[in-house]
Amino acid sequence: MKPKPLLLLVLSAIFMTIGLVSIGYTLYKIDQIVVYEAKIGVSQKGDIGIAVDTDTFNMGIVPAGGKTTRKLAIQNIMDQQRQIEVLVEGDLASFIEKPKQIFTLQPKEKLLVDIVAIIPKDATVGNYTGKVSVLVKK
Fold first, then answer.
1. Count of domains in the chain?
2. Is 19 within a domain?
3. What are the strands of the beta sheet with 30-43, ordered from one edge?
4. Domain of 66: which CATH number?
5. Hey, which of 1, 30, 72, 95 would disulfide with 117, CB 3.0 to 4.6 Å?
6. Residue 90 belongs to what domain range?
7. Distance CA 118, CA 88 (A)
8. CB-based contact 113:71 (threshold 8 Å)
């Protein structure tokens, strides 16, 4: 049995419409995305390092079995309320406690989000990288 060309055309049009609506909705809902390169070093017990970088989200050097916290400063500079979502990805993500998924910021409101890394005692010594992304939603 041969598929009818009209049926294939209609199905293709439906799937393309669904895809375009999804992309349009996403572009409408997302106001801004800010991505920071992120890194953390895992050391042997007792070795630590403090990070003061301002161009990356550097969590420093933490001994296996240790814990560190960095603060991510976010400010809503818009005149309307915005939803903020913080995502962490990459090979360092397995060490990061997931921050609250979505924050609501009023106009001109500031927020400090704790990004907490907990390094397991059996973690392999080395450098781990990833990204911390801040999604600003309408």
1. 1
2. no
3. 57-63, 30-43, 126-137, 82-90, 102-105
4. 2.60.40
5. 95
6. 32-137
7. 14
8. yes
Nearest to 132 by CA among 75, 73, 83: 73
What distance lies between CA 96 and its chain's CA centroid? 11
- Write the burial class of residue 76 (CB in 10 Å: 0-12 exposed, 13-18 middle, 19+ buried): buried
77 domain residue, yes or no: yes
**Predicted model pTM:** 0.72
Per the domain annotation, does 18 fall within a domain?
A: no
Does some domain include residue 91? yes
18, 24, 29, 35 alpha-carbon torsion, rounded to 10°:
110
Judging by beta carbons within 10 Å of its beta carbon (0-12, 13-18, 19+), is residue 34 exposed, middle or buried? exposed
Residue matched to tokens 């390094």? 119
pLDDT digits (tens, 9 = 90+) for 25-46: 555 578 888 899 999 999 987 7
Please give the Cα distance from 20 to 99 (Å, whole number).
31
